[in-house]
Specification:
It catalyses: L-aspartate 4-semialdehyde + phosphate + NADP(+) = 4-phospho-L-aspartate + NADPH + H(+). The chain contains eight helices and 15 strands. It is of the alpha/beta class. It is globular, with a radius of gyration of 20 Å. Bound molecules: 3-amino-D-alanine (2RA).
Length: 341
């Protein structure tokens, strides 16, 4: 008899992917409670051949819930995450609300499972806990960078991201499609989610820009990498860009190591890394693309080459693609839940 599971934000892009991943992985839930805002309460939804009625999210929603998967935005997580913990649930939160709280584990199961080793479902005697899911661009980057880091210790990482519409939600995906049709029809593109044309364009990530000139998305990569690697000294800088792609992020990553690491050894390490597929065919110029990884579990890595601006094999450049909704959010959260079993 498995855990009772609640899905908070079930009507959103990630909420829907939670259901797909729970089913794909035969997650052994005893029962499941689908929670959303009042707007969606009462709607019916079929999941694994069973009819469910979506319930309005309330504090009592967490009575008897063992695992609560949250993806309903930071304010909902801030309001209801602690409530669920008080009622004994283990919360896996996809928002950024608690990621940088020191005592909250920030976990990529293939990268730093030890961070959550002290949290288990069984024998928790009704005590709840909260585990934070990292930001999608952090997960995708570190799935490829960490195996190399473990081998030769990254001292500096420079990341340029090419982020998909899905990161800004289902409405942004719809806007990209709509604008594409409008532009092709010679019409003025409709800009609702973003304040500028998205189709056939790209722009600096829509997250707020801070006083240091970085946007919040870039600072998430910097701070979350240091926490996940438990290394406050690693130098990280990032530039995050929104590109007209539906649901998979791409990231160019430059790594500088403490010890030499040659490209063949790096390729071999990545070929053996969990959750990573190597697509690195120079002959046919075939490297990872967002379409290769969309709706897939693995991140794909390629363009593995020595950084010629570094001496002594102390630098590598790689290119990584990963599905933002799946491994970037829903799959990672459910892999965390699997570790609780
Ligand atoms: C984005 N990382 O892609 C954000 C979504 N959480 O915009």
């Amino acid at each position: 008899d498995g855990p009772s599971v609640a899905v908070v934000g079930v009507t959103g892009a990630v909420g829907q992917e939670f259901l797909r991943v729970l089913s794909d992985r035969n997650f052994p839930y005893r029962n499941i409670r689908l929670l959303a805002s009042r707007r969606s309460a009462g709607k019916r939804l079929t999941f694994e051949d069973r009819e469910y009625t979506i319930e309005e999210l309330r504090p009592e929603s967490f009575e008897g819930i063992d695992i609560a998967l949250f993806s309903a935005g930071g304010s909902i997580s801030k309001e209801f995450g602690p409530v669920a913990v008080e009622r004994g649930s283990i919360v896996v939160d996809n928002s950024s609300a608690f990621r940088m709280v020191p005592e909250v584990p920030l976990v990529i199961p293939e990268v730093n499972p030890e961070a959550m080793a002290h949290i288990k479902l069984k024998g928790r005697s009704g005590k709840g806990a909260l585990i934070a899911n990292p930001n999608c661009s952090t997960i995708i980057c570190l799935m490829a960078a960490t195996p190399l880091h473990r081998h030769a210790k990254v001292v500096r990482m420079v990341v340029s991201t090419y982020q998909a519409a899905s990161g800004a939600g289902a409405a942004a995906m719809e806007e990209l499609l709509q604008q594409t049709h409008e532009v092709l029809d010679g019409k003025q593109p409709t800009c609702k989610i973003f304040n500028q044309q998205y189709a056939f364009n790209l722009f600096s990530h829509n997250a707020a820009v801070l006083s240091n000139g970085y946007n919040e998305e870039e600072m998430k990569l910097v701070k979350e990498t240091r926490k996940i690697w438990n290394d406050m000294d690693v130098k990280v800088t990032a530039t995050c860009i929104r590109v007209p792609v539906m649901r998979a992020h791409a990231e160019s990553v430059n790594l500088q190591f403490e010890k030499p690491l040659d490209e063949d050894t790096a390729r071999c390490i990545l070929e053996g890394a969990a959750g990573v597929a190597v697509i690195d065919d120079r002959e046919s110029n075939h490297f990872p693309t967002p379409l290769d990884v969309s709706n897939k579990d693995d991140v794909a890595v390629g363009r593995i080459r020595q950084d010629l601006s570094q001496d002594g094999n102390l630098g590598l450049d790689i290119f990584v693609c990963g599905d933002q909704i799946r491994k970037g959010a829903a799959l990672n959260a459910i892999q965390i839940a699997e570790k609780l079993l």
